[in-house]
Each structure stands twice: as structure tokens, then as C-alpha cells.
Amino acid sequence: MITSRISGAWEAALEATGPVLTAATAFSLIRVFEGDSWVLPVYVAAAISHLLAIAIRRIGWGMLVSALASGVGLVLTVTWSHYWSTVFWGIPAGNTWAELGDDLEQAWTVFGELSPPVTPRDGFTVSAMAALWLLAFVYDWAAMRTRALFEPMVLPIAATGFAGLVGGDQHRVLTIGVFTGALLLFASIHRVAARTADARWLGGEGRASSGRRALLVGSSAIAGVALIGALAAGPVLGTQDDPIVDLTEAVNRGQRTSGRVVISPLVDIRGRLVNQGDAVMFRVRAEDRSYWRLTSLDQFDGRVWTSRADYAAQPTQLPTLFQSGTSVLESVQHFSIEQLGAVWVPAAFEPRSLTSGASETIDISYEPSSSTLIVGRSMVSSNGLTYTVSSALPRFDPEALKAIPLDTALIPEVESYTALPSDFSPRVQDLATQLTAGAGSGYEQALALQAFFRNGDFIYDANVAPGHSENRIEEFLSNRRGYCEQFAGTFAAMARSVGLPARVAVGFTVGEADPDDPNLYVVSGRHAHAWPEVYLAGAGWVAFEPTPGRGAPGAQNYTGIAEDQAIGASEIAPVEDDLNLDSPFAPDNPTDFESLFPPESPDLDNPLVDFGSNRGGGMTWMTWIAILAPVLAVLLILLIPWFKQVQSQRRFLKITGNRGKIRLLWTETVESLALINMTPRLDETYAEFARRAIEQVPLHSPDLRQLGELAAAATFAPSEPSDRNQWLARTWSLSVRAEVNFRVSRGQKLAAAFNPQPLFGSRWRGRRGPSWTIGP
Is 625 buried (19+), middle (13-18) or exposed (0-12) by CB count in 10 A? Predict the structure, then answer.
């Protein structure tokens, strides 16, 4: 009995070590992700996976049931935490899988282009949740079911190694130390539990206790030294920002001989709008107001807009992209970067030259095809830079643009800017064709597309889900709500579908002028913006503005849009028609727009919609309660059989004498017979009930009769029953219960296993039998 109790305690310790090892593995993600928005969903997913696996194993169900339940649990956890607005009564729907696929595809697309630590976008967070969920499930299978030592350590080691491979050097020693300590703790407890279960200690229980203590103390000392060393050395070592292995170089190797690949800024624009709305990105002093441009994205694969730019040239006198006939305004800007946290160097389009604000030369590269400035590999971001840019601001003549015929041949450099995926949405193509039908120039086609988005049917809403894939484009055209990412991405894709070379520019609107210095502009996260640029032969790249509530300075004469910008980080505002051009293409919709994209206006009063729309920006505590409450309820129900088993063991151990233990065994045996409708009458003795049960059931074993005799003796005999009698009573009780269990159906077993009444004491069971069935 003592050995059994000790073995059970060490098994519980081994079970508890699993979450510790999983948590230590998840801790290594601090080298990959910035901020803490990933912590709660990842750790909650790991905890639920462990609890679910423990509950199913303790119930006694096999691996198939455990795997199926774990898969369902993972899907529901991910869906409820990230895609609640897409579910139907809590069940994942078609839009759920579409959004999940988009996020995972975008994450895969930009993987390898990152310079850690990175913002934990939904695709990365969901992937981390799935990885930790799988790790917890495998631990329960390998460590608790198969009692293996090395298999439970394989996935944690692989996951921590992967985080070290793609992550930065920051916190390297700390994460390795914490993980090593957890690994040693698991190995030591596993070894002690295995030796205790085998019960092969020489010298009896006293020697066994000493052996267990020595093993545990030694292993714990090693784990403690590793943890203390990590805590001491972590803040000192591992502070470099470069990753241990730069996957960017591996991605580029064999593809290009120079240059640099960077993540698309468009995928993080919503985070700036919503989560960093008040954070100052940079300050700029300029006499001429402009959009402050970061880069442009020229490639659309149906999932995400990216750039094929090759950043190699050093910026001295920068080349121009404008045609010789384009009128320009020379402008000088003085930038001071604060919290931009990106590799790009903002400037007014089109930059012509750049000089450092300090005495030393700054490492900046230039990509001429996209007119993009970017910091060199020696710098993590542009934060802290001060510099001066000279730019040529275009001033287009609308009549000259209108005079450029549609059939003008494209130069080879821009032919690729009309490319779309072969399976691009036919509905979107049909809509774009109808919108631009009858236009005599590319300029008029672009105006028609711009007018379509600004005719009052579309609403600017920074709270919609992020994304600009084909699925997002169709959702956007149906819902008619979005922010600049959807407006610009959809405009550019539709322009390409009718043969217009187009790309997406990313940057910031003007910002807020300093009241004491009107030429100094403070640019915050709320001013993050994206807009389309269309290439018109003879003019070059021309910016348009489809986003309601936005208007570029100096562009009103050819776009018809007055200068405008953000009024708040989470702005939601319908915009009236603000086109001022005398154009036949301003604001008529195609007659069958409603049939191509039936409106699906969201219910703003529905809290579920609000919750789902904010999935990219985190969830409130009430949301987490709404998610975790049903999960915990299910787990409590699944744990009822285990609670009953623990209660039974505690009741048995709480009784000090054999008299009470034998009576308790009789009571539990009688309760099991109730499953086959065999209950004692009020006037029956132990022997009479046992005889009737053996005859009527019938029971093939005489163990119930013998157990009844021992129970009667324990109740009425003056002397205390011996230990052997108690052992015999336990043996006979298990024998009878095994025979009963064989006779009942699976449904009856499940009903009995999950019946919570025995947990609440005898007062809830009723008094349908004689008093001796209640136990001591």
C-alpha cells in the first residue's frame, strides 16, 4: 500500500512536469516575437492541450479518442481565439477556413524574410499555438502512456532549437538555461518514477526513499545550477540583434547575388493604425506637404503583395523615374526617426538625394525601380536616424494624362506590373471591366476605379480583419468596409485585371503640424497608409486615392480628391462623394454590381462581430472568459471519473481501522451492483442481499457472499478485522465489480462514470437501501 501511494505521487509529479517542459519551450519564443501579445493564446493553448490529454487518459480512453479530441480541441481553441467573427454558433464555417488559410499562407510567404524579433501576426501565433498543442499531446502519449524517456524530449528540443535558429541573440542564454533546467527536471522525475514503479530498490522502503531522494536532489541541483546560471548570464550575454543564422541569406542564396529581401510593410499596417495609433513614428520638417513614402509592392500572388526589389545601390545622386515631360516641384525634408521600427527610410516621392544629419555616413541602400530607401544590413531598423532628403514632387496635368491613349505600348520595365495569378477571381475581373468600359485612356480607367470606391457605398473602418488576398478582396467588395490595405490592394488588383500597370505604395499621410512650428509634422501610427500607383506611359507612376477620408497633398488637380487624412486610430466613417473632376466616369456603379457582390453589411450592434473584427488587436478579458468558461466546463465534466477515483482513494486512506475499510468496500460494491438494477431492500441483511444478487443476476463468483460475511463481521463483531481480512475484502470487491462491469453496456458505463452525484456525499444519494449501504 505504501509503495502504491508513493508510486502514484511520483506519477502525478511526472504528469505535472509536462506543462513545465512545455512552458519552458514556449518561453524560447521571446527570441522570435516582439511584445507579449502572443503569450496568452500560446500558453492557454498549451494548457488546454495538457488538461485535455490528462482527462482522456485518466478516464481510460485510448489514443484514437485522445487524438480526435485533441484535434477538435485545437481547432476550436484557434477558432474561438482568432476567428470568432467567422464561426456559426461556435463551429468553424467556410470563412473560418478561408481566413485561417490566408493567414497561414501569408506567414509562409514572408517566412525567411524576417529580422527577429518580429510582430506576432496571426499566422505566426496560430502556428505557435498548434506547435505547442502538438508538443503537449505528444508528451502525454510518450511520457505517461508509453513511459518513454527520450521521445518526450524530442519535440521540445527541436522546437527550442528552431527558435534559436530563426531568432535573435537576445535572451539566448536565459532561454537555453530555463529550457535545460526543465529538461533535467523531467529526466530526473521520470527516472525516480520509473524506479519507484519497478520497486527494485535493495534494502527495503527505507533504502528506496533514500535512493529516490538522492536522485531527485542531484538532478534538481543540476537543474538549479543551469537556471541560476541562465538568470545571471542572460541579461549580460546574448544582447546582439543579429540572428544566430540569418535565413535571409539562405533564402537569397542561389536567387540573387546581391541585395536584400524584407517583409512587406502592408501586412503590419493595421497594427500601426489600431495598436500604435498614438505612437510617434517620426518627425519631419518640410515646406511642402506630401505623403511620406516607405516603399512600393509590385508582386501579387493572390495571397499577399510583396516586393521583388533588389536593394544594392548606395544613394548619392538618385536616378529618376519620371518622364522628361513631367512637371516636378523640388522639396527638401529633414527627418528624425523615433519608433518606426522598420528597415525603410521614409521620404517624399520621388527622392533624388540623401545626406546624413550626423557627421558619419549612414548605411542606406536604394532600389530604383520602387524608389525605396532602406537601411543596410549593419542596422536593425531606421530608429534614431536623422537625415535630409531632396525630392521631386510630381505635378501632373490631367489633360495631358487624359491624352495618353490606351493602346500606348508599355516599356519592358513595367510589363510585369500587370501580372495576376492565373486563378484570379473572375467576379473581380468582370467588375473591373464593367467599371472601366468606354474609357479612352489609362488615366480615365484609373479615375473610374477611384470613383467606384469613393461614391459613398464604401466605409472606411480600421476595425475589420486584416488581409488583402483574393478571399479578402471578395469579402471587402461584399462587405464594403475596410481600411487602406483593402482599398489600395483591391484597386491595384482590379487595375491590373484591365491591363493597367499598378502597384501598392506604403507609407504615411502628412501627419499633424506642430502648433508652434507649422513646417514640423509629427507622424504617428494612425497616419500609416497605403495607396495605389498606376503607370501611365509618358508620365511615369501616378498615385491615386481610393480610400475614403484620405487625399494626397498636391494631387487634387488630377484626382479630384482634396487633401485629407486620419482623424483617429479606429476611425469608422462613411464618406460622401468628394470627386470634383468633370468626368463621365465619376461615380456611376455598374448595373450588376449588386449581383456580382451582394452587400453583406455587418451588424455593428452585434458584440460578436466587434470581437471578431478586433482579432488582430488582442482580446479583452471578457472575451477570454467567454472562451475559457465553456472549455473549463468541458474539462471539469471529463475529469469527473478521475475526481471520483481520487475521492474513493482518499476515503479509503482516511479510514484508520480495517473495520471501516471493509464496510466501505462493501458499500462501493453495492453501488456498482446498482448499474444492473440490483439494490438492497430495507429489511435485508448482508447475507440475504448477497444470496439474492447471486441468484437473480446471476453472479458466477461466490465473492459477493464472502464479502458480505466479512462486512457483517466488521459491523457486528467486537474484535477488529485483521489485515488479511481487509485484503480479502478488497480482492473480492474488485472481483465483483469486474463482473458487473462486464455485464453493463458502454452507455451505462459512461453514464455511471460521468455521474457527479457521488462527489457530493451521501446526502445526495438518497436512502433507498438499508443504513449499512452508506458505509462507515
Answer: exposed
Looking at residue 628, its amino acid is L
Amino acid at 310: D
Residue 571 pLDDT: 45
User: Is there a contact between 122 and 490 (Cβ–Cβ < 8 Å)?
Assistant: no
How far are the Cα atoms of 45, 83, 101, 265, 634 from residue 608, in angstroms, in the given order?
21, 10, 21, 29, 22
Q: Rounded CA gap, 3 and 25, in Å?
A: 33
Host H or E run for residue 296? strand 292-297
Q: Which residue has the cell 510630381?
A: 394
Cα 461 to Cα 469: distance, rounded to the nearest angstrom:
18
pLDDT reported for residue 334: 94
Residues 385 and 374 sit within 8 Å (Cβ to Cβ): no
Residue 390 is given by DSSP the state E
Q: What share of the chain is helix, strand, coil (3-state, %, to 5)?
A: 50, 15, 35
* Secondary structure (DSSP) of 120-153: --HHHHHHHHHHHHHHHHHHIIIIIIS--SSHHH
Question: Please, where are the H alpha helices in 359-407?
Answer: 398-402
**pLDDT by 10-residue block (mean), the chain, 776 residues:** 51 84 89 82 91 86 84 89 81 81 73 63 86 89 82 85 77 84 84 62 46 52 53 44 39 38 56 65 92 89 75 52 64 90 86 76 79 79 87 90 85 87 89 89 93 86 69 82 88 93 92 90 89 90 92 90 69 46 47 57 39 40 59 73 78 83 87 83 86 82 84 87 88 86 77 72 47 46
* pLDDT of the residue at 572: 42
Q: How far apart are CA 60 and CA 54, in angstroms?
A: 10
Pairwise CA distance, residues 490 & 468, whole Å: 7
**What is the spatial order of strands in the sheet that 459-461 belongs to?**
481-482, 459-461, 572-574
pLDDT at 225: 53
pLDDT for res 614: 38
Q: Alpha carbon of 68 to those of 64, 137, 753: distances in Å?
A: 6, 11, 20
> d(Cα 334, Cα 384) in Å, to the nearest integer?
13
CA–CA distance from 382 to each of 110, 246, 350, 547, 555 (Å)?
Answer: 20, 19, 19, 28, 28
* 68, containing H or E segment: helix 63-82
**What's phi and psi for 656, nearest 5 deg?**
-85, -35
Give yes or no for a contact between 56 and 39, defined as CB atoms under 8 angstroms apart: no
Radius of gyration for the chain, computed over Cα atoms and rounded to the nearest angstrom: 35
pLDDT for residue 384: 86
**Rounded distance, CA 706 to CA 735, Å?**
11
- Rounded distance between C-alpha atoms, residue 315 and residue 771, angstroms: 95
How many Å apart are CA 92 and CA 263, to the nearest integer? 30
